[in-house]
Amino acid sequence: MKENVLKNNGLKSTEGRKLILDILESACEPMTADEIFVLARQKRELNFSTVYRTLSTLAEKSIIMKNIGGDGKSYYQLSSEGHCHYLVCSECHRRIAIDGCPFEEMRENIANETGFHITGHNFEFVGECPECFKKNN
Amino acid sequence: MKENVLKNNGLKSTEGRKLILDILESACEPMTADEIFVLARQKRELNFSTVYRTLSTLAEKSIIMKNIGGDGKSYYQLSSEGHCHYLVCSECHRRIAIDGCPFEEMRENIANETGFHITGHNFEFVGECPECFKKNN
DNA sequence: TTGCAAATGCAAATCACTTGCAATAAAACA
DNA sequence: TGTTTTATTGCAAGTGATTTGCATTTGCAA
Predict the structure, then answer these.
(1) B57 and B93 within one domain
(2) pTM metric for this prediction
(3) Residue stretches of the annotated binding site of A for Fe cation
(4) Same-domain check for residues A68 and A101
(5) Does A48 lie in the same domain as A2?
(6) Taking all residues of chain B, what is their mean pLDDT, rounded to a whole number?
(7) Residue B116 sits in the same domain as residue B67
(8) pLDDT one-digit tens code per residue, B41-80
(9) Closest chain A residue by Cα to residue B109
(10) Partner residues linked to B122 by β-bridges
(11) Which residue of A has its CA nearest to B101?
């Protein structure tokens, strides 16, 4: 339950935070702060900077994950959901999920070799989707 | 030779462009636009927006590669150099190169499965370097 | 050498995101 | 339950990286 997730992490359970967790829970894709803001606004008053602050806080507590896309924007998703990566079309910006994540194994090796305490990763393939490629070639 | 690289791609060979290619050639790491600008300025007058425009143009022609780091900044490197990926410390922002790139193989499979014309990828591990981890735990 | 498209400089604009501070709401405590 | 304490929020202004419009300059083909 959302209340508990928050309290267990020493965070106050506020309407805004619960709403943002709700939104991320029903999202099937990583979302930008802006997208989350738009959906949240349909339910209640909520400031843009509150959305950003909430997302930072949740990411800091590892309740959600933050990734930077090739477009320079941050994408957020619940950590509990099996996370996935994307193919991003450089032309139409369509995003297609790639199932699975091949980095868990790599991560162990690299952590051992370097002593880094690895907490996450950013990955995406960039290219042209079949439609855009056809259009341009 | 730099002149040819440019001309072969239908670009005029200007002092600024050659200088930026020089800088990237002698860099052993991906660089930000700002870092490139600072070095370039030591050699000749050159506007910030020219640096950005040059980098975009070169990336568009695939002469250089652009990757977005977890800090949201763009990092540029020559495509001809074997490219590499990074471990980035979320605390002190130290970057450590990981040799090799495990994505070439994956790329083929995914391209076949999805029809995407894949032109590049962004990847980095994020975590705490041994020093910062020790400090915080 | 001239003509013209491409490249550059400059200043202002944009975009995603952050911050300072006062007002408010949640949880702790009496 | 009422009150205090402290975290959270709203608002407006601020940042930092990058982009753009437009006038000027430069490379290079004719």
Answers:
(1) no
(2) 0.80
(3) 83, 104, 121
(4) no
(5) yes
(6) 84
(7) no
(8) 999 999 999 999 999 999 989 899 888 887 889 999 998 7
(9) A98
(10) A124
(11) A106
Q: Please state, in angstroms and rounded to a whole number, the distance separating the CA atoms of residues B121 and B119.
A: 7
Read off the pLDDT band of B1 (50, 70, 90): confident
Span CA (A28) to C1' (D14), Å: 34
Q: Tell if B79 CB is < 7 Å from nucleic strand D.
A: no
Cβ-Cβ contacts under 8 Å for B77 (sequence gap 6 or more): B24, B27, B29, B30, B31, B64, B65, B67, B83
The verdict on B32 and B75 lying in the same domain is yes
On whether the CB atoms of residues B97 and B91 are closer than 8 A, the answer is no
Q: Structure tokens of B6?
A: 């440019």
Nucleic acid strand D within 7 Å of A59 CB: no
| Pairing outcome for strands B64-68 and B74-78 | antiparallel
Between CA A89 and CA A95, with CA B64 as vertex, the angle to 5 degrees is 10
* D12 C1': nearest CA residue: A49
Exposed, middle or buried: residue A45 (CB in 10 Å: 0-12, 13-18, 19+)? exposed
Q: Specify whether the CB–CB gap between B90 and A56 falls below 8 A.
A: no
Q: Can you give the residue range of the structural domain that contains A1?
A: 1-80
Which of B68, B91, B106 to mutate: most A Cβ within 10 Å?
A: B68
Is residue A131 located within the same domain as residue A99? yes
Structure-token pair, residue B38: 């600072």
